[in-house]
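QA checklist item 7 of 12: single-chain prediction sanity check.
[x] sequence parsed
[x] length recorded as 128
[x] structure emitted
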Amino acid sequence: MKQLDICMMVTMTKRGSFNSRPMSNNKDVNYKGDSYFFTYEKSGKIKELEANQNVSLIFEGKSDLYLSVTGKAKLIRDKASFKEHWVDSLNQWFEDGVETKGMVLIHVKGTIIKYWQREKEGEVSLKK
């Protein structure tokens, strides 16, 4: 999973349609199902996740690898958590680092991973 930085994060709108956008996990993945994404409080995805925490992450990798991670999102506004997951490449979007006003960390706890790679496909449950 650390090799798969960019995904499409899919959330549900208040009207019940799906909304997707590219997100970077900044290679901050401890793959027992946890992915972390920084964003701004006023972004549409935050409103959508506050209304419905279900989320899907869709990744494409090398050698025709495709992954779909289904999980629950938790919004984190704690600067200590920001520091724990911060990488310097984030400075291009968040000029003041972990002190950036209005920043939020999205923690996606994956529950199911589905994968496809050429003729192979499968599913892994991460539920405890």
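[x] summary fact logged: Residues 6-125 form a domain with the Pnp Oxidase; Chain A fold (CATH 2.30.110.10).
[ ] second reviewer sign-off
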